[in-house]
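We append the chain.
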Amino acid sequence: MKDVEKIHEVLAPAVAGAGLFLEQVELKPAGKRTLLRVTVDLADGPGGVDSDQLTDVSRVISETLDESPDAPAGQYVLEVSTPGATRKLTEPRHFRRAEGRKVILTTADGEVTGRLESVEGDTLAISNNGHTQEIAISDVVNARVDVEL
C-alpha cells in the first residue's frame, strides 16, 4: 500500500469523527521536508467548512499523525484546507455540494452554464433563463462552479 493510501486510511476516521469528509491526501517534496496536504470538506449537501471546524480538524489530524506509525517519515509540513470554490466537480457528492450554485458543465454536446437546481441520483437539473435541462452525470466531461462575486 502506498504512503498516501495508508495516511488516507489512518486519517479518514479521525476526520469523520470531527464531522467532516476526507477528500484527498497528497504528499509532495518541499525542499528537505515533505508537504502533507490534506483536503477536507462537508460530507454532503450545500454549505461550507468554517474556520473553527478547519482549526479543530487540523488539531485532530496532527494528533492522529503524532500517534501513527504511518505518518510521513522525517520532517513534514502539514497543510489542511478545503477544496476551494473552483474545484472540479467529478463525483455525485461534489455536485450535491454545489446545489444552488452557478455551474459550467462540458458535455459531448457542448458547454452548459446555469444554476444547479438539484441532483437526483445520476441526474443534474440545470436551470438557465427559466428553462431547466436534465443532464446525466455520466455525460459530463468537465464541470466546475462558476464563482459569483
Q: What stands out?
A: The mean pLDDT is 94. Residues 51-67 form the longest helix (17 residues).
